[in-house]
């Protein structure tokens, strides 16, 4: 049996739930293929402890593919991240009260790592089941970007493909505001399709979809 490690975050800021964890926990144990199983785990929203947790999970589970997910406040769709940058710049404190500003994730590390997931194929597959998805060109500069960078750094050259997906708020988190959201069932279905497409697609498809600015 091979393992796909799928991670979501604990709640942060003012929120009592994090849709990334609520969604991935529903996919724990799901059989992607006869010999491939999703294992879902939660990550702490803390700059100082999340890296150790991430590496611990990779060492314990020896996954064949790793995808981390997080809430992207303001995102309106399943956002497949292209690139992690070597910058921490927190607008708000994390769950341990830390707020790094303009520091490196890894001192002297490369400026950025690209995802090793087939992002265009994943977007295409999610859209094909009628769920909104797009490639995102930035995972921000908070804990999610840090985890994404550490993940790509840890697995660089290993042959284990990895990446990051941001998901929108749940409708109940933004009721009474104009902020976009996605129903939990839709997020779960979108993530499952994205993960399956990532598993099955070794060479990404070529499809226009970038941004002018
Ligand atoms: N989203 C935050 C951190 C945890 C989460 O779910 C982010 O985008 O950095």
Automatic annotation (TrEMBL):
Protein's UniProt keywords contain Cytoplasm: yes
Under the heading Pfam families, the entry gives:
Peptidase_C15
Where is this gene product found?
A: Cytoplasm
Keywords from UniProt, A to Z, are:
Cytoplasm, Hydrolase, Protease, Thiol protease
List the GO molecular function terms.
pyroglutamyl-peptidase activity
- Record's superkingdom? Bacteria
Q: Which EC number applies?
A: 3.4.19.3
For this UniProt entry, what is the primary localization, expressed as one broad class?
A: cytoplasm
- Which residues catalyse the reaction? 81, 144, 166
- The record's top EC class is hydrolase
Which reactions are catalysed by this chain? Answer: Release of an N-terminal pyroglutamyl group from a polypeptide, the second amino acid generally not being Pro
Family recorded in the similarity comment:
Belongs to the peptidase C15 family.
Record's function text:
Removes 5-oxoproline from various penultimate amino acid residues except L-proline.
**Subunit composition and interactions:** Homotetramer.
Instruction: Please identify the protein, giving its name as recorded.
Output: Pyrrolidone-carboxylate peptidase
- Organism, by scientific name, is Pseudomonas reactans
Q: Quote the gene name from the UniProt entry.
A: pcp
